[in-house]
Structure prediction request, 399 residues.
Amino acid sequence: MPQHPLRLADLVRQGRPPLSERSLLASANFTLSLIPIRLAHRLQALQNLPYIVVSNPNISQIYNNYLHSLSILLPYWQAASKGRAISTLDNEIKFTNVLAELVATHTDTIPVLAKGFLECRKYISPEEVTRFLDEHLRARIGTRLISEQHIALHFSSQPHFDPGASPTPCPEHPSYIGVIDTALKPALIIESCAGFVADICELRYGIRPKLIINGEPETTFAFLPMHLEYIITELLKNAFRASIENKSTEPIVVTIAPEPPLKHQPGEYPDIKPPSEDLGLFKSDAIKPLDDNAPGVTIRIRDRGGGIPPDVLPNIWSYSFTTFSEDDDVPSSTGNDGLGAIATASTGGSSIAGLGYGLPLSRAYAEYFGGGIAVQSLYGWGTDVYLRLKGVGKVVDKK
Ligand SMILES: Nc1ncnc2c1ncn2[C@@H]1O[C@H](COP(=O)(O)OP(=O)(O)OP(=O)(O)O)[C@@H](O)[C@H]1O
Ligand SMILES: [Mg+2]
Prediction:
């Protein structure tokens, strides 16, 4: 079955929490209609790798994780396709537990896959690895998002209201719809990520690079705090490291530039439709984008870290471990340089230290909802990174 391309609008289609029982069940069934197809596509992509690569213990561990996740979801899928969609709260609780297990099972996918491909580099070309990883990691972003969104909505719904159990602050904070913050302030995320990265730098190098935020720090827009945090942490890691290595005492300057609002006619903003009466599976796929032309925000991160050497520049977007030569040692996942410490801390122990995932994965996150990342290096001076993010547009409350 074809994979449904995910839009931010899909994630807010049930309206603002707390969801009623009916909307919660609709969300569960919508989630169920998407996830097994996505898992099946990932399994197929893994099966299409050369046999010797899939036989690698790390890669086959990932394969088995996908197989396991699909097998625990299939009973729900089969019931739904026989007309027995998720229609009771009891069933919805069980289904949400399955989703939580899925999210937990796949947490370490990236470092494990990285290690696997590194060990297999004699048997598969760097281009093939990059192609596979790019597709796989992008698809994974969506699958996790769909699952996490339902989990968050579950705990902020009327039947299961439990702020303590929710992975996001959605129940207490009215601006949240599940994992989306409709009034996200990038300046706050930048400050908290910068504090975190600076702490690690101080610990490791004894230096705490300074950071200035200018432009329009009061800007808010609708976006996913989780994704913005990931991207900003990666970009600041790079900027801070370059500054320290280049012995620069200049601050890193982050400029927040909101795009001018688009000209809209009153009432032109699309509504979030209440869920239909029909809770059946597969009936919910006719979805319109919320607002594909929502104004976005561009964030420029400017450092005086000496820029990117011309011989490094062409490779910054590849999962650069693929350029390791056959004699290189596999970098240990608990590297003891500062960068390793930063990566380890930010992923809760599962390190992607120095494997060169920072930029390509950040770009995948940025591009997921129509944004992007551009890098401009002034070799010998510093680097500008432009992160453009598209907002979700106005979320209109149904009164
Ligand atoms: N702001 C910057 N200044 C100088 N060089 C940079 C900057 N950002 C990136 N680079 C160069 O680009 C390379 C790739 O960056 P990327 O973040 O993708 O990987 P990494 O930092 O090496 O490893 P990881 O981010 O996975 O820990 C870096 O190794 C570095 O050489
Ligand atoms: Mg990096």
